[in-house]
Design goal:
Layout: E1 2-8, E2 15-21, H1 24-31, H2 35-39, H3 42-61, E3 67-71, H4 77-84, E4 89-93, H5 97-109, E5 116-119, E6 138-143, H6 155-165, E7 167-174, E8 177-186, H7 188-191, E9 199-201, E10 204-206, H8 210-214, E11 222-224, E12 235-236, E13 241-247, E14 257-264, E15 269-281, E16 289-291, E17 310-321, E18 326-333, E19 338-344, H9 361-364, H10 367-373, H11 376-389, E20 395-398, H12 405-411, E21 416-420, H13 426-435, E22 442-445, E23 462-466, H14 482-489, E24 494-501, E25 504-514, E26 526-527, E27 530-531, H15 533-545, E28 552-554, E29 561-563, E30 568-574, E31 584-592, E32 595-603, E33 609-611, E34 632-636, E35 649-658, E36 663-672
Parallel strand pairs: 3-4, 3-6, 4-5, 6-7, 20-21, 20-23, 21-22, 23-24
Antiparallel strand pairs: 1-2, 8-12, 8-13, 8-15, 9-10, 11-17, 14-18, 15-16, 15-17, 18-19, 25-29, 25-30, 25-32, 26-27, 28-34, 31-35, 32-33, 32-34, 35-36
Helix pairs in contact: 1-15, 5-15
Length: 673
C-alpha cells in the first residue's frame, strides 16, 4: 500500500507531494540505525562478555539460580552471552518491534529460544508475576542504554524503574558502574563553535549582539569524535577530573543532582570549554574497563566507535583563570542531560539551572555554523569577492540563511542592501543590525524569492545577487543549489549586467578508503561466536529499499579516510545563467576505491573559490584535510565486504542533475580488481 506524503524539498524549496510505501519510515529507521557499528565494536563486546561471565559466576557462587534481565537487548547478543556464561533464564526487553523480531530470529538461530524470552515492550511496561512478562524478578541486570552523554537515552529512569520493580534486592549489574570525567580547557577552535566573534572589514568592526555574548547557549550536548581534535588545538587549564559515578547494582535515582570537583589551575587562560567522556567498569573490582576516552589520552591499541563518542560543554561565559588558582568544576544532571559551570576557590554557589538559549542565535545557528561564521580565512574570501563586484550604486540582495554577507556589503559601501530571511531568524537579524547601527540600512524581506516583485524593491533592479550559499534545511552538499532556484526566480529583477556571487559551483568527488566509517554499513555475520545474520539481512533489506542508492551526510573531518585518487570536479553549475530545463549529466572513470566522498566548491569570482570539502591538496599518502563547517556526502558502494581482498575496485560513475526534482541521481559501476 502506498500513501502521499508531503516532503520539503531542500533543493527547490518546494513542498513536494510524493507517493511513498507505507513501509518507508520503517525502512528509514532501520537503515539509519547503525546497529552494525555496535556489533563491530570488539572492545565493547569483549568487555561486556567478560563482565557477564563474572556476574553470573558471582550469583552462582551464592548458590542462586541466575535470572537475567537484559534491557535494550537489540540483537539479543548480550542475552546469548549470559546463557553461554551459565545463566538459567534471560528476559530480553526490546521496545523497537523490528529489532525485537530480528532478536527472536537470532536467538532461535543460535539455539537459545528455550532460555531467552524476547519481550517487545519498553522496560517500564514490563510486568512481573505468574501471568506477567517475567515470572520472577531477575538477579542480574544487563543493559546497554547509553549514549555519548551517558544518560541521554533515558538510562537513569530505566535503571530506577528496574530496581524498583523488576530486580531482586541483592542483584548484580553489567556494567557495574559508570564514571564521568571532565577537563577544563581554553580553545579558540572549540569556542568558535559557541560564540560569534567580531569581524574586521575595511577597518571597521562588525560586533556580535550583546545578547549573544551573554547567552548561556543551547543545552544540547555537542558530541564529536574528540580523538580527531588535536591536543594542540586546546590548552588544559586543569587536570582530568572525576566528576561522579553511578553504581548500577544499587537503586538509581533520576532526580536532579549536582557534583563538584576541586582542583588547582595548572595554567593561566580563558576558561571556555569542558571536554567530557565516561568509562564503564564491568565488574565491582574495576578490572574490566571499557573507556570512551579520546585516543590521545592512552597508548595503543586505538579504538574506534561511533555509537559512543565524547562530549563538549560550553561554559555559560568565558572567564580568566590564573595558574595556581583554586577552582571548582560543577556538573549538574537531570534525568536526560548534563551541564557544567565553574566556581572560584572554596565558594559554594547554588547549582545553576540547565542552560537555555535566550538570544535565538544558538537555536538558529548550529555549532558548525558558528564555526563557519567565525572562520577568518573564509570571511576574507567573501569580503574580497564582494569588494571586487561592488560599486557605489550597487543594489544588493542576499539569499542565504543567517548570513553576515548583507552586513559586509553595507560596510563595503553598497548603496542599498536587502536580504531574505526566514520567520524564525527575524529577531536575530535585527539584533545583529542594531548592534552595528545598521537597522534601516539593511532591509529585511519577509517574502519568498519567487514572490518578490519590483514594488518590493522600490522599483530598483538588483545589481549584485549574493549568497554563501547556506541554508539550514540543507543536508547534502548539493541541497545548496536552492540558491540557483532563487536566482532563476529573481531573473526578471536583475540588471542585465548583474553580478552573481558565487558565479558557479562544482560538485567534486574523490575515491576514498575509510579507516573505520565503513563499519556502519558492513554486515557482522558472526559476532563474538554468535550468528547475527538475521540482523544483517534486515538492515540490508531496508538499505535496498532506498538508502543504499543514495549518498548520506557525514562530517568527514571526524572520520579519517585515505584518498585513492586526486579530487575531480564531476559537475559544474553556472549561476550566471538561469536553471536549465533539461537534466545536466556527466560521467567518467575514478580509479580504484570502495566509496566516494562528495562536496561542493563555490566559485565566488574567477579567482576566489570556497570549498565545503577538502581544505587543501591531497598528499602522496592520500591524507585528507576536511572542512569542519559542512557535512560532505558519502556514497558507499553496496557493502565494503563485496570488494576484492585488498579493498579496491575500478569505479565508473554517472551523475545526472534533475532540475525538476532538485536532486542528483548517481550511478556507479564497481568492478573488483
Amino acid at each position: 500500500m502506498k500513501t502521499f506524503c508531503g516532503r520539503a524539498n531542500p533543493t527547490t524549496g518546494a513542498l513536494d507531494w510524493v507517493e511513498e510505501s507505507e513501509e518507508y519510515d520503517y525502512h528509514q529507521e532501520i537503515a539509519r540505525s547503525c546497529y552494525a557499528d555496535m556489533l563491530h565494536d570488539h572492545d565493547r563486546n569483549k568487555k561486556y562478555y567478560e563482565g557477564i561471565r563474572a556476574a553470573v559466576a558471582r550469583v552462582k557462587a551464592r548458590g542462586e539460580r541466575v535470572i537475567v534481565l537484559d534491557i535494550g537487548t537489540g540483537t539479543g547478543l548480550l542475552s546469548m552471552m549470559a546463557i553461554t556464561a551459565g545463566a538459567d533464564l534471560c528476559y530480553a526487553v526490546e521496545v523497537f518491534k523490528p529489532m525485537a523480531e530480528a532478536a527472536q530470529c537470532i536467538v532461535e538461530k543460535n539455539g537459545f529460544s528455550d532460555k531467552i524470552k524476547i519481550i517487545n515492550k519498553h522496560s517500564t511496561d514490563v510486568t512481573v508475576g505468574p501471568d506477567g512478562d517475567m515470572q520472577v524478578k531477575a538477579n542480574v541486570l544487563i543493559t546497554e542504554l547509553f549514549d555519548t552523554e551517558l544518560i541521554g537515552e533515558g538510562a537513569l529512569p530505566s535503571y530506577e524503574h528496574a530496581h524498583q520493580n523488576l530486580m531482586q534486592e541483592r542483584c548484580e549489574a553489567v556494567p557495574h558502574r559508570a564514571t564521568v570525567y571532565a577537563q577544563l580547557v581554553e580553545s579558540e577552535l572549540l569556542w568558535s563553535w559557541a560564540q560569534l566573534q567580531p569581524v574586521e572589514v575595511e577597518g571597521a568592526r562588525l560586533v556580535p549582539p550583546p545578547a549573544v555574548g551573554r547567552c548561556a547557549g543551547a543545552h544540547a550536548v555537542c558530541d564529536i569524535q574528540l580523538s580527531q581534535v588535536s591536543p594542540a588545538s586546546f590548552t588544559p587549564l586543569g587536570p582530568v577530573c572525576t566528576m561522579f559515578t553511578v553504581d548500577f547494582s544499587k537503586p538509581v535515582s533520576s532526580a536532579f543532582q549536582a557534583h563538584s570537583s576541586q582542583f588547582v589551575a595548572q595554567s593561566s587562560g580563558r576558561a571556555q570549554v569542558v571536554l567530557s567522556w565516561w568509562d564503564l567498569d564491568m565488574d565491582p573490582t574495576g578490572s574490566i574497563v571499557c573507556t570512551m576516552a579520546p585516543s590521545w589520552t592512552y597508548q595503543e591499541p586505538k579504538m574506534w566507535r561511533d555509537h559512543w563518542m565524547q562530549s563538549l560543554y560550553f561554559l555559560p561565559v568565558e572567564s580568566q583563570v590564573t595558574e595556581g588558582e583554586e577552582l571548582s568544576l560543577m556538573v549538574c544532571h537531570d534525568d536526560y542531560s548534563l551541564w557544567y559551570s565553574l566556581q572560584r576557590g572554596s565558594q559554594t554557589e547554588a547549582p545553576p539551572s540547565r542552560p537555555c538559549c535566550t538570544c535565538q542565535a544558538h537555536l538558529v545557528w548550529t555549532r558548525p555554523r558558528f564555526g563557519e561564521l567565525n572562520d577568518r580565512r573564509r570571511t576574507e574570501s567573501y569580503v574580497s569577492a564582494l569588494r571586487s563586484v561592488l560599486r557605489e550604486d550597487s543594489v544588493c540582495l542576499s539569499v542565504s540563511d543567517g548570513s553576515l554577507l548583507p552586513a559586509f556589503a553595507h560596510m563595503l559601501g553598497a548603496k542599498k542592501v536587502r536580504r531574505f530571511h526566514r520567520t524564525d531568524t527575524v529577531h536575530l537579524s535585527l539584533q545583529v543590525l542594531e548592534a552595528n547601527s545598521m537597522k534601516g540600512r539593511v532591509e529585511l524581506l519577509e517574502i519568498r524569492p519567487e514572490q518578490l516583485t519590483s514594488n518590493d524593491v522600490g522599483g530598483e533592479q538588483i545589481s549584485v545577487l549574493m549568497g554563501e550559499p547556506y541554508f539550514s534545511t540543507s543536508l547534502l552538499p548539493w541541497h545548496s543549489l536552492f540558491f540557483w532556484y532563487c536566482r532563476t526566480a529573481l531573473a526578471g529583477l536583475l540588471r542585465p549586467d548583474a553580478s552573481i556571487l558565487p558565479r558557479s559551483a562544482s560538485l567534486h568527488m574523490v575515491a576514498v578508503e575509510f579507516q573505520d566509517l565503513w563499519r556502519i554499513r558492513a554486515p557482522c555475520g558472526t559476532c563474538e561466536g554468535f550468528d547475527v545474520t538475521p540482523m544483517d539481512e534486515m538492515v540490508q533489506r531496508s538499505l535496498d529499499f532506498r538508502e543504499s542508492r543514495e549518498a548520506e551526510p557525514h562530517p568527514l573531518w571526524e572520520y579519517p579516510c585515505r584518498a585513492l585518487t586526486q579530487s575531480a570536479a564531476t559537475m559544474t553549475f553556472d549561476f550566471t545563467q538561469c536553471l536549465p530545463q533539461q537534466p545536466i549529466s556527466s560521467q567518467g572513470l575514478e580509479g580504484r576505491c570502495h566509496g566516494v566522498a562528495l562536496w561542493m566548491e563555490y566559485h565566488l569570482t574567477d579567482d576566489i573559490t570556497v570549498s565545503a570539502g577538502l581544505n587543501g591538496p591531497i598528499n602522496e599518502q592520500g591524507d585528507c584535510e576536511w572542512s569542519r563547517h559542512r557535512k560532505q556526502g558519502v556514497y558507499f558502494f553496496g557493502s565494503p565486504w563485496e570488494i576484492s581482498g585488498d579493498g579496491r575496485a575500478a569505479v565508473s560513475y554517472s551523475f545526472t542533475f534533475e532540475p525538476s526534482l532538485g536532486d542528483i541521481r548517481m550511478d556507479f559501476s564497481v568492478t573488483s580488481q
